[in-house]
Amino acid sequence: MTAHPTLLLPPRTAPGPESLAEYRARGGHRGLEAVKQNGAAWLRAEVATSRLRGRGGAAFPTSRKWELAAAAAGPEKFVVANGGEHEPGSRKDRVLVERHPHAVLEGLLLAGLATGATRGWLYLIEDMEGPRKAAETALAELRAADDLPFPIDIHLGPTTYVAGEETAALNAIEGKPAKPRKKPPFPGEVGLFGKPTTVNNTETLAHVAWIAREGGAAFAAIGTAESKGTLLFTLGDGVQRPGVYELPFGATYRDLVEGMGGGLRDGRTLRAILPAMSCGFLLAQHLDVPIAYETLQPLGTSPGCGGVRIVDDRTDVVALAVGIAEFFMKEQCGQCPPCRMETNQFVHILKAVQAGKGPGYDDKLAKLAEFSRRKGFCSLIEMAAAPVLSAVKLFADDFAAAAGPGAPPAS
Q1: Parallel, antiparallel, or unpaired for β 230-235 and 307-312?
Q2: Of 214, 261, 392, 396, which is the most exposed, with the fewest CB atoms less than 10 Å away?
């Protein structure tokens, strides 16, 4: 198997979360020392050089977020590490915080120093007991070592999918319902308690800690032309070796599924993968396409948050699409009428396919998605559409067979 660089998940023999002493022994906190010597502008420049993009799924350039918050006026600013991971099939944020809490916390501190923050939060979900305990222990170590430039608190959000959206997380920290805010204004301008706030995914921040230590150019040297560094992936029970794995951009899903995961279990044959629940499907014939934003976008998909789902020769893809649609219908927060309408109608139309109600479903789904596009406070409205429209297109024969010819015309 080809050796790949490992930035976030170094090999370990010790059980449990990485301690402060263990983290420092492998170079941890060198980034904090560097920014104390070189200043906030230096760190922002290193992150810009790295071309790091957010690892929560949206892939927004990290440096642009930071510059917005750094330029905002006011003596009080905040920073949030968003670990509100509740997408089915994704466990990378949980694993990262539970195994390597100090990398996440150093990245959080670095983001705060780079943007002028005076207080920070690690945002997790209520059912993340292991990550919470690991983070609490790590914070206690930092306090005992007098190594916190500003105070950090842990906040537990509700166990809903939408609570992981960055502005929903801010509402939750403020004690409000965890529902997304309308944007603009963006959190970098008006965030927590009306103050400029930088929100980054926990994986993004762990990368920041590596960049501050090793340099932006070293990070940019890993990956492809437009997609830099490494990405964490979650493989489920469809493969021989389920788990969370790290690969550089430019590797392939074959490297992931066969090399890391050991191939499909029970002698099954791969038909497709879903790179993340909110993305389009990727057919087996594209397993050797390099994983990168610029290579997957023409194929109608994206790496997303890396929660990979296997579609094998025994998968009922119509039932899979119905299940995904039902998930988004259940998890939409209810405050945007177009999102409520779209997610409910997707389920209604797909269940009609299952019931053999005949053709016409593809046109209905496409028109509904186009009507609803960009009409929600968050991107769930697009996330719900992407896998459904992709499934109908790529598995057209499966859907046509399930839908049947419909009722015969009246004589």
Answers
A1: parallel
A2: 396
Q: Hey, what are 50's tokens?
A: 């790295």
How far is 43 from 149, CA to CA, in rounded Å?
A: 16
Tokens describing residue 244? 């969370």
pLDDT at residue 411 tops 90: no
Residues in the chain: 411
Asked if residues 120 and 78 have their Cβ atoms less than 8 Å apart, the reply is: yes
Superfamily (CATH H level) for 20-220: NADH-ubiquinone oxidoreductase 51kDa subunit (3.40.50.11540)
Q: What is the pLDDT of residues 307-341, one digit of tens each?
A: 999 999 999 999 999 999 999 999 999 999 999 99
The tokens describing 177, both together, are 């319902």
CA atoms in the 13 A half-sphere facing the CB of 173: 30
Q: Assess whether pLDDT exceeds 70 at residue 408.
A: no
Two tokens, residue 252: 């392939």
- Check: CB of residue 283 under 8 Å from CB of residue 309: no
Nearest to 135 by CA among 166, 111, 165, 104: 104
Q: Cα separation of 326 and 368, whole Å?
A: 16
Give CA–CA dist 189/308, Å, rounded: 34
* pTM of this structure: 0.95
User: In the β-sheet with 152-157, what is the strand arrangement from edge to edge?
Assistant: 152-157, 119-125, 78-82, 197-201
Cβ atoms of 26 and 10 closer than 8 Å: yes
Q: Which band of pLDDT confidence, cut at 50, 70 and 90, is reported for residue 5?
A: confident
Q: Return residue ranges of the chain for CATH 1.20.1440.230.
A: 317-403
SS3 125: strand
- Whole-number Å distance between alpha carbons of 253 and 309: 11
Q: Find out whether 226 and 293 touch, Cβ atoms under 8 Å.
A: yes
- Which overall architecture, per CATH, does domain 230-312 show? Roll (3.10)
**Residue in this structure with the two tokens 């943007």, named with its chain if needed:** 115
